[in-house]
Amino acid sequence: MSEVKTSRREMYAALTKSAILEAAKKLFVERGYDDTSVDDIARAANVSKGAVYHHFRDKREMFAQVYRETTAAVSTVVAQEVLRVPADSWQRMEVAATTAIRAYARDPQARALLQQVTRVLGDEQTKEIELEYALPLIQQLFEEMNRVGELARFDTEVAAQLAFRVLCEASLIVAAAADPDAASQRAETVMLLMLGGLKK
């Protein structure tokens, strides 16, 4: 019986945390981080302020988790699209790059969060989150292309990190653009040309 009670408590806690994050994301997108208070988030989530602080240390921690989940979602979309392409194909590199850039063009919430993240979390924490979710796939693709002989001779680890940083900058350009779709097309063109220069 105690296990059932514990399970219910855990389920309720998970639902409460999810509701808080959903409310926080909506408000961060619509109002911005600075104009959103913990009280606002609690009201929007229909929970007490104490419940918010039970799950999160402060508003900044909530923003970090919202950004982490958004970045993870983009990375999942990219990975899914890459898996549609035959293994060992150079097209995988191209699909990964274009999908990552287009994901921000198509998602206004992701763009709104991206525009705020470095100011809220700082460069170091922002980079840590992006490295956690985006870099592993890029490294994997470079290793795959190197293994099948698609790449010129160079340090693939360094190349993966540089490609990662360029993709991050491309996403920022798209997020800040008045016309995200047009900005995405321009960024994709440049990114594909840069990647093409790494081929044999």
TrEMBL record:
Residues 14-74 form the HTH tetR-type domain. GO terms for molecular function: DNA-binding transcription factor activity; transcription cis-regulatory region binding. Keywords: DNA-binding, Transcription, Transcription regulation. Residues 37-56 bind DNA. It comes from the Bacteria. Pfam families: TetR_C_41, TetR_N. GO terms for biological process: negative regulation of DNA-templated transcription. The keyword Transcription regulation applies. This is TetR/AcrR family transcriptional regulator.
